[in-house]
Amino acid sequence: MRIFLTGATGFIGSAIVPELLxxxxxxxxxTRSDAGARALEAAGVEVHRGVLEEPDxxxxxxxxxxxxxxxxxxxxxxxxxxxxxxxxRVIAAMGEAxxxxxxxxxxxxxxxxxxxxxxxxxxxDVFNLEHPNPRIxxxxxGNALLxxxxxxxxxxxxxxxxxxxxxxxxxxxEIARAKGVSAYVxxxxxxxxxxHLLDVALLYRLAIxxxxxxxxxxxxxxxGIATREIAEALARGLNLPVVSVAPEKAAEHFGWMSIFAGxxxxxxxxKTRRILGWNPVGPGLIADLDAMxxxxxxx
Length: 299
Known about the structure:
- The protein is of the alpha/beta class.
- The chain has helices at 13-22, 34-42, 55-62, 80-98, 136-147, 169-179, 197-210, 227-238, 250-254, 258-261, 270-276, 285-291, 294-298, and strands at 2-6, 26-31, 46-49, 67-70, 105-110, 152-157, 159-161, 182-185, 191-196, 216-218, 222-226, 242-245.
- The strands form three sheets. A seven-stranded parallel beta sheet has the order 3-2-1-4-5-6-10, with helices on both faces. A three-stranded mixed beta sheet has the order 7-9-11.
- The chain starts with a strand and ends with a helix.
């Protein structure tokens, strides 16, 4: 297939590219920069110039393709709600280009959308319409396209990791450096789900090849890792003390990250594994944190 991939030079997209090429697909990769274009060309990818701020530029890439994987997202968390709405507009624009066809669109969301209640395992069969996370805008936009007869499915991400980046854990590293302590909220029993980058890249390929309208997949290898365990791993790597922060002090300590730091949002991938035959084999989150070169990361 000719697969249009947004975010092709990003953390996750750059791992999806070789996975798709290895399987014999032709990849059209979106980038906004000259450096990104050069990297994609070197990888054997057809370059498409586009930016999220101009949805029509993204739509133009969709028109060239047999299938679409959308991973691009603006990760400026100081404008998180606004960026989620921007993602919604981009998804709507891509849907316009797919009307009247069966060409599949695989969008990206978070596992939290499958939490009926905080602390329960998120599942693929749940879409919590009352979820307070602004990222819900992405799935609502996907649902609107699905209702319009467009073949949309959703990849829900946990903390995607390797030894360089780890989703929401990466900002915790910077906060720990700035504060001089590695912290968790309360007793640190709340859990983050996780999945290794290469396992997640494989899952994107399996999902776009299946192209099942309305399907939701959880890219979860580990259902829930206690934030205290994460904080202890960061403390080992950074040679810092570990401390507990009272919930009422979380905003002061963690800043914008406080909206996530105390959440308990474990997630299951049982259905995803069964339907797609996905068997994650990559290192776990704590193993990657222990293997990371923190000095190189700081440089």
